[in-house]
Amino acid sequence: MAKLRYFDAREQIKPAESRLPTKHSEFLRTGRISRRREDWLPEERRYLTHEEVAERTARKLQAAGEKTHQNINGFHRSIQFPKMIFHRTLADSPHLGYCHVTASRTKFARYDEVAWAFYIANFYSDIGDNDNFFDNIAVQNSRMYFAVAIKPGDSTPERMVVDRSVRGNGLLFRTDDPQIAIRNILLLGARNEQLRQIIRQL
């Protein structure tokens, strides 16, 4: 696959500017040749390095993570999650990335205790079954909220890895709707069934 190139997008031509006379008609009307540089030399695109793109993506992911964590902890004082925000961009596509928002433990379905982590990504994809965390990335959807079961990594450089013994691939939920995501996180964090019933009615 060819390496992606990114350029700094310029502002679009304003409607007033687009009605300016063309160079040849201006010469025919006045007999003058414009010496202004911008009339003859188009602005060159300034290409961005992958590091610059990754930096811009990281700032957006950080802001989204902060806002989402604030929304989750603002629901009820009995459901509070630790702030554990960090982000990663994809190596060959630094305009794509994901942000870890929080992590916790909960009793989940038939599992006694499940450690899990909640993420936001600026794309939509499947969660891979192997070392490739994301499969079939679709950038048409601008955001994905998901939670996965996690466990300590044994022979990997990562401290925590996806616990694929939970539901086959470790995925607890995945959605592009922020309201559904927050409701699911609150259900995972609710301490008793009474609180879960209230959350389900939201």
Portion of residues within helices:
25-40%
- N to C succession of SSEs: EHHHEHEEEEEEEEHH
> How large, in whole angstroms, is the Cα Rg?
25 Å
Stretches where pLDDT is under 50 for at least 5 consecutive residues are 11-16
Largest sheet: 6 strands, antiparallel
How many helical stretches? 6
Beta-strand percentage?
25-35%
Summarize the structure.
The protein has helices at 15-18, 23-30, 37-40, 50-73, 178-189, 193-200, and strands at 6-7, 47-48, 86-89, 97-108, 111-121, 124-127, 134-138, 144-152, 160-162, 171-175. The protein is of the alpha+beta class and 202 residues long. Residues 11-16 have low confidence and may be disordered.
Explain what the structure shows.
InterPro entries: DUF6656. With 202 residues, this protein is α+β, with helices and mostly antiparallel strands. The chain has two domains: 6-47, no CATH class; 50-200, no CATH class. It contains six helices and ten strands. It has helices at residues 15-18, 23-30, 37-40, 50-73, 178-189, 193-200; strands spanning 6-7, 47-48, 86-89, 97-108, 111-121, 124-127, 134-138, 144-152, 160-162, 171-175. The chain is elongated and about 85 Å long.
